[in-house]
Each structure stands twice: as structure tokens, then as C-alpha cells.
Amino acid sequence: MTQYKYDVTMSCTGCSGAVTRVLSKLEGVDKFDVSLENQKVTVESSTLSETDILTAIQKTGKAAKVADK
After folding, report:
1. 2-66: which CATH architecture?
2. Which residues contact 2 (CB under 8 A, 6 or more apart)?
3. Taking the model in full, what pTM does it have?
4. Residue 41 binned pLDDT confidence (cut-offs 50, 70, 90)
């Protein structure tokens, strides 16, 4: 299982809720954590690529990028 980290601009619980919804429906996501306070999203998956997950997060309309390692 691989862990990916993203910086996601979220201004309210509605924003973090949208990201939570899309990740909970995304097949291949084993575990995830959405931190509104830190503007961070961590996702664990054994089948999805970093880009697949980033694309899904960006479909919510939020500005998202792969976090600096």
C-alpha cells in the first residue's frame, strides 16, 4: 500500500466534505484523512496512482497539488 499526500485549498467544512465524499466513492482508496485545519489530504491505496487520486480531488473544484515531500 502506498501513501500519497496532497495540499488542498479548503475554506470550510463543505469543502472538506466534498473531498471526503469523492474519496469515499473512489474505488481503490484503502484509507484517507482530510484535514481542513492543515489543508492536507492523505490517501492510502494499493491500486491507484498519485495522479488518479489528484485528478479525483481536483474534480471537486478545489485547488490541489501533490504535497512537497
Report:
1. 2-Layer Sandwich (3.30)
2. 44, 45, 46
3. 0.93
4. very high
